Amino acid sequence: MAAIAARLITKLVDVQDKYGEATVVLTGGTVGIGTLRAVADSPAAPAVDWSKVNFWWGDERFVGSADPDRNTKQAFDALLSHIPVAPERVHSPGSSDEFGTPEEAAEDYARRLREAAATEHAADMSDDRPEEPSSLPRIDVVLLGVGPDAHIASLFPEQAGIREKDRTVVGVRNSPKPPPLRISLTLPAINTAAEVWMVVAGEDKAGAVGLALAGANPVQVPASGPRGTSRTLWLIDENAASRVPQQLVRKDAAGA
Length: 256
Ligand SMILES: O=C1O[C@H](COP(=O)(O)O)[C@@H](O)[C@H](O)[C@H]1O
Known about the structure:
This is 6-phosphogluconolactonase. Belongs to the glucosamine/galactosamine-6-phosphate isomerase family. 6-phosphogluconolactonase subfamily. This protein is about 30% helix and about 15% strand. It is an alpha/beta fold and about 260 residues long. It has one domain (about 1-125, about 140-250): Rossmann fold, CATH 3.40.50.1360. The strands form two sheets. It has a five-stranded parallel sheet. It has a three-stranded antiparallel sheet with strand order 3-6-5. Helix 7 links the parallel strand 7 (about 195-200) and strand 8 (about 230-235). Helix 1 packs across helix 2 and helix 2 runs parallel beside helix 3. The structure holds ligand LXAUTJHC. The ligand O=C1O[C@H](COP(=O)(O)O)[C@@H](O)[C@H](O)[C@H]1O binds near residues 27, 31 and 147.
């Protein structure tokens, strides 16, 4: 995870050099939170101007704001409470303390994304600026973990969320992984990001990774769906890579 952390720090520095600020979408899960811990521990972390990083989340568990299950709480404990973030740039999805249903929280999150996009659009002075603001701000990097069932964010196989084509954010019910109520960015929203980084470790993810890289249908294998507009990176350990289709493995790769 130190290697992913080093890469993320470098990416944020590069993006800040280019745009003055950077926007990252965080993930929960073992590798997602482990990576944030590794960023906090990295001697290179101060190279990033953390006050100019916009933080969003790919998904959130719809529970109370102090619940240890919250991806945002875990991210604060791992990283955000250790770096000088600008609170107005930290965009946590709503909790069950503030909203009655995950759908209401999803609508609020989508509205805040739209507002960020409109603010960005108003500030954009370039000649090639589109006439209408988009419904999402520019996203530089989306981090995504993958569950053993191949879910990403809170988009689970065969459920409504992974089939969503129009909305940017959905409320999720009946998540097979507890807690059952969640909020998630949709695949079309994720795929507006410049870069999508799939961060995966462990033998229990090998089947999901293998199917995703073999090009399975995202409805059955959500991990197959994410594509960054500039690039899609799979940052995985050897165990998670053990069932990658042979034709995708470089002949000169170690052990081949
Ligand atoms: O519930 C979730 O699970 C996935 C994967 O988590 P992992 O512990 O199996 O790595 C995570 O990406 C997602 O953000 C989270 O809400």
